[in-house]
Amino acid sequence: MTDLPQFPSPTWFVGCGNMGQAMISGWRSAGIDLSNAVVIRPSGTAVEGVRTVASFADAGPQPKLVILAVKPQKLTEVTAQLRPWLTSKAVIVSLLAGVELTTLRKHYPKAAAIVRAMPNLGVSIRRGVIALASDDADDALRVQLSTLLAPLGYAPWMIDEARFAAVGAVAGAGPAYVARFVAALTKAGEKRGLSNEIASTIALETALGTAWMAATTGEDMDSVARRVASPNGTTEAGLAVLDRDHALDALLASAIDAASLRGGELAEEARSASLATDAQLS
Ligand SMILES: NC(=O)c1ccc[n+]([C@@H]2O[C@H](COP(=O)([O-])OP(=O)(O)OC[C@H]3O[C@@H](n4cnc5c(N)ncnc54)[C@H](OP(=O)(O)O)[C@@H]3O)[C@@H](O)[C@H]2O)c1
After folding, report:
1. How many of the other CB atoms lie within 10 Å of CB of 3?
2. Is the CB of 20 within 6 Å of ligand 1?
3. What digits encode the pLDDT tens for the residues 62-99?
4. Of 68, 76, 122, nearest to 96 (Cα)?
5. How far is ligand 1, taken at its centre, from the CA of residue 137, in Å?
6. Tens-digit pLDDT profile for residues 227-260
7. Nearest alpha carbon, ligand 1 atom 40
8. Residue whose CB lies within 8 A of the most ligand 1 atoms, among 70, 149, 177, for a mutation test
9. 10 Å Cβ neighbour count for 103?
């Protein structure tokens, strides 16, 4: 198939744990050719469908595209190992939560462009959300990356890092919050006498069916809720509890506030680490 997106040759995945593998699973199930790509991870543990090596020296020709998928705390260590292999043609796409463009630019001063991407785990089944931000990617690179990421889900470019962080706070962490909601629905079913197997299955299928219905029809969530709740009926009685004092809205807003606060702390830690290691890297 000629219309499938192609990875720049060569593309290096630096680190490939939970998120790197989720993205690769999504691309593989979309039928994308990964023969131009190589995974570099210290364990050398094979990643299905992609050549995997344990050291940069074994990765082959210098990369055109680098997808950084290590933990934020590893940035300085990995940069010291990676920089000798980079030319000024390399584009860096960083998945690192909380590490800002200015910090990345200090680590990779010669990179052709630097892009932040914040995916969520839905990429593995091609229903992910991937926020994108850059202050130096040109239109051609934006189109190229959008095309490459489209098979993994919804990948909007955000106009600044504040909005990028907002998408990350909602969508990056979102699967964890949805998981908690489904678990709470399960516990409520068990409390009413259902077995765990039945309660967890109906909670999951209800979440999936509701999301799928809204995603395919475009119906908004207020309308979905209204269609379920007849006046003075059972659902309306339940919604009155969830809606009282905007309890659910307030709970989620404070969860996302806490995540954003932690994001700010991680960014600060990355900035400080970057200052401390400037001399070491230059
Ligand atoms: N998980 C999520 O839902 C999620 C969501 C959004 C963004 N992110 C971001 O994605 C990044 C990766 O997260 P993760 O959950 O995938 O972490 P992870 O599962 O811990 O994977 C980290 C990877 O880094 C590799 N690594 C460690 N040191 C390295 C080195 N010196 N050179 C090359 N690779 C090295 C590890 O290699 P080995 O496997 O060989 O040990 C591992 O493959 C993080 O920055 C995170 O902020 C994650």
Report:
1. 5
2. yes
3. 999 999 999 998 999 999 999 999 999 999 999 998 89
4. 68
5. 24
6. 999 999 999 999 999 999 999 999 999 999 998 8
7. 43
8. 70
9. 22
Considering only CA atoms, which residue is closest to atom 26 of ligand 1?
15
Dihedral (CA of 52, 57, 60, 63) sign: positive
Alpha-carbon gap, residue 269 to 265, rounded angstroms: 6
Phi, psi of 120 (to 5 degrees): -120, 170
pTM strictly above 0.90 = no
Stretch 206-228: mean pLDDT: 95
Helical H runs in the chain? Answer: 18-29, 75-82, 101-107, 139-149, 161-167, 174-191, 196-217, 221-228, 234-243, 247-281
Q: Counting atoms of ligand 1 from 1, which one is nearest the CA of 168? A: 6
Q: Which domains does the chain have, with CATH numbers?
A: 11-169 (3.40.50.720), 174-258 (1.10.3730.10)
